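Dear support,

Our group has been running a series of protein-ligand predictions, and this particular one with FE2/S2 (inorganic) cluster is the one our PI (initials K.S.) wants archived with full inputs and outputs. We had some confusion internally about which version of the output was final, so please treat the block below as the authoritative record. The input we submitted was:
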Amino acid sequence: MSEPIKKYSPVAIAMEVDKRYSWCTCGHSINQPLCDGSHRAKKATPPLAYVATEEKTAYFCTCKLTKNPPFCDGSHKEI
Ligand code: FES
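Confirmed final output from the archive:
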């Protein structure tokens, strides 16, 4: 039996000024798109820290293919 095809889409986060967001780079977090510490046990890549400079809703990448991390750049549409 084959696995179902995964569909990715960005997740909207209402960012707060000066708040630090740890974007999951390894894909193991169950708290996507943010890090839950799973990379430590998996010996995977650590998260990317982003500190918001303005209060706005941002769309964080979940497919990990963006060229503008941590934000979605539409690359998920190529999967
Ligand atoms: S979810 Fe859109 S580029 Fe990754």
